[in-house]
């Protein structure tokens, strides 16, 4: 086993794997990373993230659930790392934070250097795209806990926001509009149900018509998107009063988390065309509509809550980023929902 | 499933488990935790950690390896969380950092509320002892990945240090003394070997004479110690030029990581009495001395590298904290090792 230790990135893996990931990991390093210091931890120089009056650190830890099992089934491991980074980044971005750095945990029964490399390259790619340094990692081999070929991932992101710029939903008002920003697929939620339904009927290479040419495996592995740029663009023009990252719990479950007391949301589920993957799961699995809404994002990965008067400008700003945002509902009084 | 969401602590678990952990998790909250904000991430107000001129964030992510399998075998889950927190805290403390907050990942096949509660209470206990807020967590149920009863843990700690107070080993000089601070047992390393050796011969309840009355299970589950207070006390009087947290790689492997180029260490393994657990593993497993040294801490959980002239004071400072530090070697020229 070779060891890659730099700026807290402590990776024990095959020599070839370590050689291959070294460059891509280093490419994620932003000026804040103190690489000159060999250390047990990853060091990040806060001043390098820009002068701040009253900074608040925003952090989140997460996994990717059983999307892992799809990656293992299909034998495609180069995007699951992106899924994890983007999921974590979105969870802090909705507070208005920008990510500073990310740390990963990779646990497996027996390390397969090619799989390890693919996963870490996914972390590195997404970290770079989000302007976030891959500053630390732990690789664990536990043959008694994981079956050969299986692995689990956890990731932790730390970001920063000015205290008076935190987006916390307190300014959300009745009549605000819910703008949906498209997801790319299931993101990282609902995989236990989706796998059960789809793999009872199909193999991963099947291309049911509803998927418009994609295979079941491809559709299920589509990368969880990062909404960092969209969120930051709306914040820059003060266009949103809140954001919700649509994960487990669905559009309503997640969006209700950011509402002030006394308010609720009314979502019009007919307002957008539900992507084929969700329609296929519902049809094949005969999944009740209520379960679909609670389990899946249904094509909406991010909800931006926007004052009605700013709706047109918000759509223009998102459109300029290539985001065809669509109105999916409104904020209402709690008893009117 | 009930959900506990507060300041980024997002826990889906049995209602009873959530009810029980809520108080202890909240007790870890330091003034920096912005609890008033329901959020997708955990928010920490940096100013609450004290005024700093030029702060550096120090972070580490880790697991506890197959010590988990001992906890599962013995059915004792209330200390494994402490192991993880203390391991992570030590990894940043050796740079001079104090921990600000901790996030955990708990993945299992099927959530057992009593086990979950015990593990989280362990996190909370150790976080509180280290002055570190348990600010976030993710609980994942993945029956296809983990066997019933099995679980894995990952934890991430974020700490802070003044840039000009980072302890990075650059002032280490030939002749500096290596002071060993006692471990409580294996801490979180070497469990694959230790389990294989000991459980081939004993059951967990056995009390071999070398363990001085403790059972094999008790000895193996002894909590990974936190060295935060010892490290901070030495730093406060400028008594140390470097620290090494002795984990996988042993005393030499870890201590070499902090040495400047051109220096090495000479460890005198006869300088302290090796605890019974290590002697038992070596004897029962006929483990070569070299493997013992590379795999285990051998009774030394922390090495403080101290200028010879400050050795006596350093020992006094540690002694006042109840730490019977002992001299285990010296810093030497690289070619003289």
TrEMBL record, chains A, B:
<dbReference type="GO" id="GO:0004641">
    <property type="term" value="F:phosphoribosylformylglycinamidine cyclo-ligase activity"/>
</dbReference>
<dbReference type="InterPro" id="IPR010918">
    <property type="entry name" value="PurM-like_C_dom"/>
</dbReference>
<feature type="domain" description="PurM-like C-terminal">
    <location>
        <begin position="173"/>
        <end position="335"/>
    </location>
</feature>
<dbReference type="Pfam" id="PF00586">
    <property type="entry name" value="AIRS"/>
</dbReference>
<dbReference type="InterPro" id="IPR004733">
    <property type="entry name" value="PurM_cligase"/>
</dbReference>
<keyword id="KW-0547">Nucleotide-binding</keyword>
<feature type="domain" description="PurM-like N-terminal">
    <location>
        <begin position="56"/>
        <end position="161"/>
    </location>
</feature>
<dbReference type="GO" id="GO:0005524">
    <property type="term" value="F:ATP binding"/>
</dbReference>
<keyword id="KW-0658">Purine biosynthesis</keyword>
<dbReference type="InterPro" id="IPR036921">
    <property type="entry name" value="PurM-like_N_sf"/>
</dbReference>
<dbReference type="InterPro" id="IPR036676">
    <property type="entry name" value="PurM-like_C_sf"/>
</dbReference>
<keyword id="KW-0963">Cytoplasm</keyword>
<comment type="similarity">
    <text>Belongs to the AIR synthase family.</text>
</comment>
<dbReference type="GO" id="GO:0004637">
    <property type="term" value="F:phosphoribosylamine-glycine ligase activity"/>
</dbReference>
<protein>
    <recommendedName>
        <fullName>Phosphoribosylformylglycinamidine cyclo-ligase</fullName>
        <ecNumber>6.3.3.1</ecNumber>
    </recommendedName>
</protein>
<keyword id="KW-0436">Ligase</keyword>
<dbReference type="GO" id="GO:0006189">
    <property type="term" value="P:'de novo' IMP biosynthetic process"/>
</dbReference>
<dbReference type="GO" id="GO:0046084">
    <property type="term" value="P:adenine biosynthetic process"/>
</dbReference>
<dbReference type="Pfam" id="PF02769">
    <property type="entry name" value="AIRS_C"/>
</dbReference>
<dbReference type="InterPro" id="IPR016188">
    <property type="entry name" value="PurM-like_N"/>
</dbReference>
<comment type="pathway">
    <text>Purine metabolism; IMP biosynthesis via de novo pathway; 5-amino-1-(5-phospho-D-ribosyl)imidazole from N(2)-formyl-N(1)-(5-phospho-D-ribosyl)glycinamide: step 2/2.</text>
</comment>
<keyword id="KW-0067">ATP-binding</keyword>
<dbReference type="GO" id="GO:0005829">
    <property type="term" value="C:cytosol"/>
</dbReference>
């Amino acid at each position: 086993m070779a060891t890659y230790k730099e700026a807290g990135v402590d990776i024990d893996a095959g020599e070839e794997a370590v050689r291959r990931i070294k460059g891509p990991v280093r490419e994620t390093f932003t000026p804040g990373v103190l690489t000159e210091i060999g250390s047990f931890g990853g060091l990040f120089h806060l001043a390098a993230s820009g002068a701040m009056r009253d900074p608040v650190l925003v952090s989140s830890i997460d996994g990717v659930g059983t999307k892992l099992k799809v990656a293992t089934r299909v034998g495609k491991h180069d995007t699951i790392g992106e899924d994890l980074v983007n999921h974590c980044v979105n969870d802090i971005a909705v507070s208005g934070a920008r990510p500073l750095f990310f740390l990963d945990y990779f646990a497996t029964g027996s390390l397969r250097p090619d799989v390890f490399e693919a996963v870490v390259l996914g972390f590195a790619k997404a970290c770079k795209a989000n302007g976030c340094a891959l500053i630390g990692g732990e690789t664990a081999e536990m043959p008694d806990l994981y079956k050969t070929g299986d692995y689990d991932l956890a990731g932790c992101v730390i970001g920063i926001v000015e205290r008076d710029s935190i987006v916390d939903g307190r300014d959300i008002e009745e009549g605000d509009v819910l703008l949906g920003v498209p997801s790319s697929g299931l993101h990282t939620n609902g995989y236990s149900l989706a796998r059960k339904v789809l793999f009872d009927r199909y193999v991963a290479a099947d291309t049911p018509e509803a998927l418009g040419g994609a295979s079941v495996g491809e559709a299920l592995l589509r990368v969880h998107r990062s909404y960092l740029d969209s969120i930051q663009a709306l914040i820059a023009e003060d266009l949103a009063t809140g954001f919700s990252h649509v994960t487990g719990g669905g559009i309503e479950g997640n969006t209700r988390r950011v509402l002030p007391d006394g308010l609720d949301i009314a979502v019009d589920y007919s307002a957008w065309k539900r992507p084929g993957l969700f329609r296929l799961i519902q049809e094949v699995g005969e999944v009740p509509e209520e379960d679909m809404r609670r389990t899946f994002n249904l094509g909406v990965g991010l909800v931006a809550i926007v004052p009605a008067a700013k709706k047109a400008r918000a759509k223009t700003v998102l459109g300029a980023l290539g985001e065809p945002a669509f109105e999916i509902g409104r904020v209402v009084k709690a008893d009117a929902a």
